[in-house]
């Protein structure tokens, strides 16, 4: 009998957590599920690991020979899904026991086509909220069209907000982990590949809301984000590509046009600044490990970041759309 759900794993921003995340997924998911793993040009060691485990666990491995934006990777995975539900999850997420059944129960009982879990981080020995739903909508402010996004309870300890964590409608989920009805997603044409590296979750939630679909938060399902650092050296090319300036500018121009936002909307500048600060994080990590002074780090960021952006932009511009290589299930 075919399981009701397919889990599609895509890379987020680094490869060095992939093995831990996949092993956690199998360990904490007793429910039957199909698995499609979209390998977004991983380094050789991880590629070998995935090939071995695809044979052992009998999951479908789709290998893409270049770094490409996550919405494109999700669409590649979506084309192979044959179950009523699909979960998209990133390759650095750790799932907690009961996560999948809780999402399926919520979707079945509420009929919501989009369900997100409670997203947490484990900091200082305690679980804190990364996001418990939130706000994502458009407003006219002083005659200008604005996009409003706010996370609910970010940084709060679970114990502080436990009484407010219940199943409820929400305007916002994130792509760290999300369950969707496959037919609804296909009716919407999958994911917008013009939204390449930021605001993807906001675009999805606005699209679903515009179509009249409800979105639910199910805090009985818990997934943990493991934020960088640390990094491995082989994370650098992917990380810099994932948050590159060219994709960020293209994304925000596309997003602004699609949702008819005022060019001065603070949401757009915030997202662009966020991707830039994200890119700096990996430079700071390796510069700190090299014991370079704070003055040296500032100088290195000033010169290295534009060089990296230029190199990544030129590399992306030379590429043609990749043809995925599918490793058939044995």
Describe this structure in words.
There is one protein chain. The protein is of the alpha/beta class and 330 residues long. The chain is built from 11 helices and 13 strands. Strands 1, 2, 3, 4, 5, 6, 7, 10, 11, 12 and 13 form an 11-stranded mixed sheet that branches. It has a two-stranded antiparallel sheet with strand order 8-9. Helix 9 packs antiparallel against helix 10. The longest helix is centred in the C-terminal third of the chain and has 25 residues, at 294-318. It is globular, with a radius of gyration of 20 Å.
Give the key terms.
13 strands, 330 residues, alpha/beta, Spore Coat Polysaccharide Biosynthesis Protein SpsA, Chain A, 11-stranded mixed beta sheet
Query: What value does the average pLDDT take?
Result: 91
What is the SS-derived class? alpha/beta
Order of helices and strands: EHEHEHEEHEEEEHEEHHEHHHHE
Going by CATH, the architecture of the largest domain would be Alpha-Beta Complex
Q: What kind of sheet is the major sheet?
A: 11 strands, mixed
- Which descriptor suits the 3D outline? globular
> What is the CATH class of the largest domain?
Alpha Beta
- Terminus-to-terminus distance: 18 Å
Instruction: Count up the helices.
Output: 11
Low-confidence stretches: none
How many domain modules? 2
**CATH topology descriptor of the largest domain:** Spore Coat Polysaccharide Biosynthesis Protein SpsA, Chain A
* CATH homologous superfamily (4th level) name of the largest domain: Spore Coat Polysaccharide Biosynthesis Protein SpsA, Chain A
Beta-strand proportion: 15-25%
* Beta-strand segment tally: 13
Q: Report helical residue fraction.
A: 40-55%
Radius of gyration over C-alpha positions, nearest whole angstrom: 20 Å
């Amino acid at each position: 009998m075919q399981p009701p759900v397919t889990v599609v794993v895509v890379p987020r921003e680094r490869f060095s957590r992939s093995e831990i995340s996949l092993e956690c997924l199998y360990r904490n998911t007793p429910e039957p599920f199909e698995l499609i793993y979209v390998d977004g040009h991983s380094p050789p060691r991880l590629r070998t690991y995935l090939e071995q485990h695809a044979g052992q666990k009998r999951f479908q491995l789709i290998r893409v020979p270049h770094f490409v934006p996550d919405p494109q990777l999700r669409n590649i995975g979506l084309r192979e899904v044959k179950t009523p539900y699909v979960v998209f999850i990133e390759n650095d997420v750790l799932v907690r026991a009961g996560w999948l059944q809780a999402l399926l129960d919520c979707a079945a009982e509420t009929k919501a086509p989009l369900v997100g879990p409670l997203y947490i981080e484990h900091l200082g020995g305690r679980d804190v909220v990364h996001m418990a739903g939130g706000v994502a909508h458009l407003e006219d402010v002083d005659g200008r069209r604005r996009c409003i996004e706010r996370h609910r309870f970010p940084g709060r300890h679970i114990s502080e907000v436990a009484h407010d964590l219940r199943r409820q409608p929400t305007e916002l989920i994130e792509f760290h982990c999300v369950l969707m009805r496959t037919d609804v997603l296909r009716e919407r044409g999958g994911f917008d590949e013009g939204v390449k590296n930021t605001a993807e979750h906001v675009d999805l939630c606005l699209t679903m809301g515009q179509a009249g679909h409800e979105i639910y938060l199910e805090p009985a399902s818990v997934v943990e984000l493991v934020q960088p650092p640390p990094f491995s050296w082989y994370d650098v090319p992917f990380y810099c590509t994932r948050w590159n300036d060219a994709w960020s500018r293209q994304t925000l121009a596309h997003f602004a046009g699609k949702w008819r936002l005022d060019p001065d909307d603070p949401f757009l500048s915030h997202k662009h600044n966020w991707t830039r600060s994200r890119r700096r994080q990996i430079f700071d990590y390796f510069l700190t490990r090299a014991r370079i002074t704070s003055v040296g780090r500032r100088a290195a960021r000033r010169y290295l970041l534009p060089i990296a952006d230029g190199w990544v932009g030129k590399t992306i511009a030379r590429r043609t759309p990749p043809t995925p290589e599918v490793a058939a299930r044995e």
